[in-house]
Amino acid sequence: MSAILQTPKDWPSVLLARAGAKDPGNIDEAVQSGAFDGLRRAIRELGPEGTTAAVEAAGLRGRGGAGHPTAAKWRTAAGTEARERFVVANGYGADPAASTDRTLIEADPYAVIEGATIAAFAAGAEQVFLSVRATDTTAVTRLQAAVDAASSRNFIGDDVLGSGRRIEVEVRPVQGAYMLGEETVLLKALDGKRGQPEQRPPHPATRGFRNAPTVVQNVQTLAAVPAILTGRKGAAGTILVDLRGHERSGVAEVPLGTPLRDIVELGGKPAAGRKLKAVVVGGPTGGILPPDQLDTAYSYEDLRAVGAHIGSGSVIVADDRACVVDLARLLTRYAADEACGKTIPCRIGVRRLAEIGERLSTGTSRGGDLGLLEDLAADVVGSALCDHERLATLPMMSGLRYFRDEVDAHYLRGDCPAGVCRTVRLATDRAPVGAPA
Ligand SMILES: Cc1cc2nc3c(=O)[nH]c(=O)nc-3n(C[C@H](O)[C@H](O)[C@H](O)COP(=O)(O)O)c2cc1C
Ligand code: SF4
């Protein structure tokens, strides 16, 4: 489990409320601290629609990156005529550098199990799959032990809390590349098939696993549900970030809407003589933001407006030793390598963006490269099967938007001011063909 960062006392602790437990797998201790109280209320008091209405009233939105309203998915699945329905907890954690979901599963497996069971109750599903990255062995083992313990107490299984409702919960370790975190790919992997994203609509809530209505929900989204039903303060409004800070790194639970500055400060100050240069927000397809954007609220809309996104919850700070062109190049290369190739503008377009990044960082830019970069990014956005295409443009586009001088130094002079890129210096002071004189 990653280190859990200390947050200010007035920030609510919802997802990590039980993180301090000596033995997170001990069901007696978990129950004593309120585990399965939300499920009990859903079943004995609220009923399926009342449960969905409570989650809707709280305003819960998906923590898997895009922020879809949670209750809407449950209602769609419940309202779709079908013989069977499914709930899938997405705990895959596609970003290899972010451990938010894994940390949650390890710290409080019962919150995930309870949230998924409540979702199944509300959506009319009898089967829940808890998908976890197979290499996260502690998370897999802990979740499996917690499922066994919850089953032995009738919190899940044939007769949930004596209600006559059957909700089976199964841990499903999955392993694959970055795209496996995308919901339609994950659904195919769970069915033992090779996956590429599918055209939507229909969304999985209408037609998902084996063509049945399927609620796919990030594990953090699900873990917030019991807290909502038991009336915990701020229950629908926190999210986990994986901060790589100047002095400290780890996972922190932050209220949505917190200024980015407060999150960065959890990680301490830059080393003596150094200053903050950039913050990469959103993981491999994150936006690269300069210090003057630190007042931006960490929320779906505000981050999108500045060219970043919540994504994997990753927030990485870089001091003035870093080169933004090099960062953008690396991230775009990763995004191009991980693109599944099904959609041509993404398969070719993101690769071309990565090549422009490579040329910038080696001092071999061609005239018109920056214009091409903007044109390509505009073409790539909006013609995709999945969000990866749009998101993959963010590192380069935010680099261009906020660090133009540094980009121009590479582009026009083959110079890397931070001394990071191994640029092949141009033989003369000649600018790239076609670049402004
Ligand atoms: C390339 C790509 C990778 C993704 N990886 C993850 C992931 O690792 N975990 C996750 O929960 N959602 C991931 N998503 C989002 C899912 O497709 C889906 O929207 C999410 O699991 C729905 O849950 P939510 O509504 O609770 O956020 C990814 C999306 C894309 C386009
Ligand atoms: S947009 Fe990219 S990653 Fe998504 S389906 Fe198309 S090729 Fe695959």
Describe this structure in words.
With 437 residues, the chain is of the alpha/beta class. The strands form 2 sheets. Strands 6-5-9-7-8 form a 5-stranded mixed beta sheet, sandwiched between helices. Helix 4 packs parallel to helix 6 and helix 12 runs antiparallel to helix 13. It contains 16 helices and 9 strands. A hairpin with a 5-residue loop joins strand 7 and strand 8. The relative contact order is 0.12. It folds into 3 domains: 203 residues, 3-Layer(aba) Sandwich (Rossmann fold), CATH 3.40.50.11540; 86 residues, Ubiquitin-like (UB roll); 114 residues, de novo design (two linked rop proteins) (Up-down Bundle). The radius of gyration is 23 Å and the shape is globular. The termini are far apart. The site of iron/sulfur cluster has 15 residues, from helix 12 and helix 14. Iron/sulfur cluster binds next to helix 12 and helix 14.
Helices and strands in order, then pairings?
Layout: H1 27-32, H2 37-58, H3 70-79, E1 86-91, H4 100-107, H5 109-123, E2 127-133, H6 137-152, E3 168-174, H7 183-190, E4 214-218, H8 219-229, E5 238-244, E6 249-255, H9 260-266, E7 276-281, E8 287-289, H10 300-305, E9 314-319, H11 324-338, H12 344-362, H13 369-380, H14 388-392, H15 394-402, H16 404-413
Helix pairs in contact: 2-3, 2-5, 2-8, 3-5, 4-5, 4-6, 5-8, 11-12, 12-13
The structure holds flavin mononucleotide and iron/sulfur cluster.
Summed up:
With 437 residues, the protein is α/β, with parallel strands linked by helices.
